[in-house]
Every structure is written in C-alpha cells, then in structure tokens.
Amino acid sequence: MTAYFVVRAQVMDAAVKDAFDRWYQNEHLSDALEEFQARRAWRGWSALDPSVHYAYYEFADLARAQAIPGSAAIKRLAAEFDRAWGDKVTRSRDIVQAVQSLGG
After folding, report:
1. Among 14, 16, 61, 77, which lies 20 to 30 A Cα-Cα from 91?
2. What's the pLDDT tens digit per position in 59-74?
3. For position 1, what pLDDT does the model report?
4. How far apart are CA 93 and CA 7, in angstroms?
5. What crossing angle do the helices spanning 72-85 and 29-36 adopt, rounded to 10°?
6. Contact (CB, 8 A) for 103 and 9
C-alpha cells in the first residue's frame, strides 16, 4: 500500500521564511522528487504554526519509502539543505504507511 516520506521543517529565523519558501518551490521539492524517484510530491505550511513547513513524497509501497533515509539521494539533499539553511531551519523526518483510504 502507498507510503509517504514526510519532512517537517521549522523555520527558526523568521527573516528567512520567504527565501526558504522560494528555495523549496523553485529548487528543492522538484530535486527531491527526482532524486527519490517518488510518484509525486507536495508541500505546505502549517495553519496552526506559521513557522512549520511540511513536504510529502509519495511512494508505491513502504519498502520504497523506507529506502530513502539511508540513500545517497538523502545524503546529497541533506547536505544541500544544511549548506543553504544551517541552524536557521531545523527538520525531522517520518515515514507513514497508508492503512485506509476513503472517498475519491
């Protein structure tokens, strides 16, 4: 069943939020989609905490999502993320397997 690799980023320095948003929009999301070979990717900002950003990468199955944390792709992307944002943006990652879906 479908699985997702989820990245939660928190912008610690509000002065860089717009730049971070542009970077994710223009570079990082598409780079990660390609590097991870995900089916699709999307992102958004939390409506409850405007400093929190989520990115979702969809995979056909759990095994493909579980391969991401140890991959060469994540190492390259994480190095670029760290170079660009240092301690101004923190992040955590999770893998979620879909177990039920209703509706369209």
Report:
1. 61
2. 999 999 999 999 999 9
3. 86
4. 5
5. 160
6. no
Return the domain boundaries, the chain: 3-97
Q: What CATH topology corresponds to 3-97?
A: Alpha-Beta Plaits (3.30.70)
Tens-place pLDDT, residues 4-28:
999 999 999 999 999 999 999 999 9
- Picking from 47, 59, 43, 37, the residue whose alpha carbon sits closest to that of residue 91 is 43
Task: Please provide the DSSP assignment of 21-46 as one string.
Answer: HHHIIIIIHHHHHHHHT-SEEEEEE-
**How far is Cα 36 from Cα 32, in angstroms, rounded to an integer?**
6
Per the confidence metrics, is the pTM higher than 0.70?
A: yes
What amino acid is encoded at 29 in this protein?
L
Length of the chain measured in residues: 104
